[in-house]
Amino acid sequence: GEGLFLARLQGPGHVWLQSLPFSRLAGRMLSAAVRPGGKGEGSVLGSLGDLFGDSRR
Asked: What is the Cα–Cα distance from 6 to 53, expressed in whole angstroms?
């Protein structure tokens, strides 16, 4: 079921909140990673970066 969790975080770093059920999260990751015309691992990792908003490119 649904739950409510409260936490206080301190210090440097990033916090990632998972708001989707794991099955839906995995499905979205796979759909972002599998693109026609990709070239090996680089394209998969680049697609996952797009999914998570990586702007380092």
From this structure: 26
- And the tokens for 45? 């990792």
The secondary structure of the chain in percent helix, strand, coil, rounded to multiples of 5, reads 40, 0, 60
Copy the structure tokens of residue 10: 């301190």
CA–CA distance, 25 with 17 (Å, rounded to integer):
12
Distance CA 47, CA 29 (A): 9
pTM: 0.35
Neighbours of 46 (CB within 10 A): 17
Confidence check: pLDDT of 11 > 90: yes
